[in-house]
């Protein structure tokens, strides 16, 4: 079993609708939508992204503008294990 040290980034259809299952128009990066965890931290800081914990997925997502990123961090991975 593996646990990801990356996230998936999507371009939101409407930046005002950013919850889980918000409509996206495609991937938000040129790497098939993947971002390494350290890249996510930089993105969140540089873009003053809002970070949300999702109790159902036991994971985080962040958003800024039209970019939405789903990811795990240390505490969410620990809880899943």
- Any idea what the shape is? globular
Number of strands: 6
Strand content: 35-45%
Number of helices: 2
Mean pLDDT: 91
- The topology string of helices and strands comes to EEEHEEEH
Query: Uncertain spans, ≥5 residues at pLDDT below 50?
Result: none
Please give the structural blueprint.
Elements: E1 6-12, E2 24-27, E3 34-36, H1 37-46, E4 50-54, E5 59-64, E6 67-71, H2 74-80
Antiparallel strand pairs: 1-2, 1-3, 1-6, 4-5, 5-6
Task: Please characterize this protein's 3D structure.
The protein has 81 residues and is α+β, with helices and mostly antiparallel strands. It is 21% helix and 37% strand. It contains two helices and six strands, in the order βββαβββα. Strands 1, 2, 3, 4, 5 and 6 form a six-stranded antiparallel beta sheet that branches. Strand 5 and strand 6 form a beta hairpin. The protein is globular.
Keywords, separated by commas or semicolons:
2 helices; 37% strand; single chain; alpha+beta; six-stranded antiparallel β-sheet; 81 residues
Give a nutshell description of this structure.
By secondary structure, the chain is an alpha+beta fold. It has helices spanning 37-46, 74-80, and strands spanning 6-12, 24-27, 34-36, 50-54, 59-64, 67-71.
